Amino acid sequence: MKSLLERKKTEIERLNSVYVNLLKNSGVEYIEGKGLVLDEHTVEVRCQDGSVLRLRAKNILVATGGHAVKLDIPGAEYAITSDEALVLERIVKENIVVIGGGYIAVEFAGIFNGLGAQVHLMYRADFPLRNFDNECRTVVGENLQRRGVQTYSGCSP
Q1: How far apart are CA 98 and CA 79, in angstroms?
Q2: Contact 54, 42 (CB under 8 A)
Q3: Are 105 and 132 within 8 A, CB to CB?
Q4: 34 has which bridge partners?
Q5: Which of 14, 59, 146, 157 is buried deepest, with most CB atoms within 10 A?
């Protein structure tokens, strides 16, 4: 697991540098820091070097990304999110239930299955990956089952 975590960290650093380089090579002025929206046209950025910039624009887009949230169901205190799954200190070898049929849930079902856990993947739709092509969804569902992942469609905890 330690090796997996080290490789994950290396890959995240590599991907971040790829994204930054794509932005810079596309002519984007890249400013790293903490931003504060002051008004409808002004953002204040506190840069890593301690300097402060005030940027003005006609439009401001705030793209914060998302974060995993635990369901408000009995037993949620025993669950972990995908964020926590990325920093487990030991390999999970016992039964594990993954709730959701999106890309991240399917990815974790495959990871835990590959590490030797008995994985149960629960999702509301007929097949995982709801926003994907139906043929792709069918093949992914069949491949998960062929690899030993127990899938449960039509489930909503």
Answers
A1: 10
A2: yes
A3: no
A4: 46
A5: 157
Confidence (pLDDT) at 68: 83
Task: Read off the DSSP letter of residue 76.
Answer: G
Give the predicted TM-score (pTM) of the model. Answer: 0.68
- Please classify residue 151 by burial: count the beta carbons closer than 10 Å to its beta carbon, then call 0-12 exposed, 13-18 middle and 19+ buried: buried
How crowded is residue 130: how many other Cβ atoms within 10 Å of its Cβ? Answer: 14
To the nearest 10°, report the CA torsion of 124, 111, 83, 92. 100
Question: Phi-psi bin for 14: left (phi > 0), alpha (psi -120 to 50), beta?
Answer: alpha
Task: Indicate the average pLDDT of the chain.
Answer: 91
CA distance 136 to 133: 5
